[in-house]
Amino acid sequence: MRGGRSRSSPRPFEAHPGFKDPSLRRSLALFRAFLHEQDDPESCYSLLATDAADQVEGYYGPVAGRTVVDVGGGSGYFTSEFRRRGAHAYLFEPDVRELGEKAADGTVIADGYLLPLSDGVADVTFSSNVLEHVADPQTFLSELARVTRPGGLIYVSFTNWLSPWGGHEWAPWHYFGAERARARYRRRTGKPAKHTLGENLFAVHIGATLRQVRARGDVVVVVARSRYWPFLDRAVVKAPGIRELATWNLLLILRRCPP
């Protein structure tokens, strides 16, 4: 980011009828959906995809007719929601196991470090809860910026390590150590944990990430906020130390700068 300082931006408008963002009603609905992620993933991720697409349109405007690149979107809920709104949306997913029984049409198996796309082809580049799963977040962000046109939007969210959800399926026991938390998960469920710290889950922190993003010259920060908090969603991110625990999930809206 130029000059190391973020530009201010007006609060987003509500692009579609639904939950006011932020609001307690919205946060409770998302939280209830997360509690049933394992037994009802369809409802959980459909709601999350609708909410995320509302956020994108809140900062960008309608996506109809626009090119949206969904990086690491797994089974394609986000891609499908953007297509439902008229976008030309494409899913790029590195792990075929995440695609589910039927991948979205046009899905490309590709690593987020090296997307098979030309520079500046996307109006919106979207990445939901992927950054904590890559070993080199800055290279990953550079690739998102590269494929986004100047003036285009980059949506990035991630679960920070010190969040109560930082350990993913073995949270909040990650506060007592990753290996101990993984061992407890196996004892409790009888199966190995999906995530291993240092292999497919990494300790990403809000303060360090904000400093790195604000130092970049290829993007400008439109907003940094808690993705799920029902109030003071921007204020909590401005409190060093507290934000690492209280933010839960950081949402970064970035604007691609001209080259």
Task: Label this structure with key terms.
disordered N terminus; 29% helix; globular; 259 residues; alpha/beta; 18% strand; 7 strands; single chain
- Structure annotation, total helices: 7
- Secondary-structure element order, N to C: HHEHEEEHEHHEHE
Terminus-to-terminus distance: 12 Å
Sheet with the most strands: spatial strand order? 3-2-1-4-5-7-6
The pLDDT mean sits at: 91
Category by helix and strand content: alpha/beta
Largest sheet: 7 strands, mixed
Give a count of the beta strands, DSSP E runs of length 2 or more: 7
Based on CA atoms alone, the radius of gyration comes out at 17 Å
Strand content: 15-25%
Fraction of helical residues: 25-40%
Low-confidence sequence ranges: 1-17
Principal-axes shape call: globular
Fold blueprint:
Layout: H1 24-35, H2 41-60, E1 67-71, H3 77-84, E2 88-93, E3 108-109, E4 122-128, H4 137-146, E5 148-158, H5 178-189, H6 206-214, E6 219-226, H7 242-246, E7 250-256
Parallel strand pairs: 1-2, 1-4, 2-3, 4-5
Antiparallel strand pairs: 5-7, 6-7
Helix pairs in contact: 2-3
Overall description:
Mean pLDDT is 91; it is low at 1-17. The two termini are 12 Å apart. It contains 7 helices and 7 strands. Helix 2 (41-60) crosses helix 3. The protein has helices at 24-35, 41-60, 77-84, 137-146, 178-189, 206-214, 242-246, and strands spanning 67-71, 88-93, 108-109, 122-128, 148-158, 219-226, 250-256. Strand 1, helix 3 and strand 2 form a beta-alpha-beta unit. 29% of the residues lie in helices and 18% in strands. The protein has a 7-stranded mixed sheet, sandwiched between helices. It has 259 residues and is α/β, with parallel strands linked by helices.
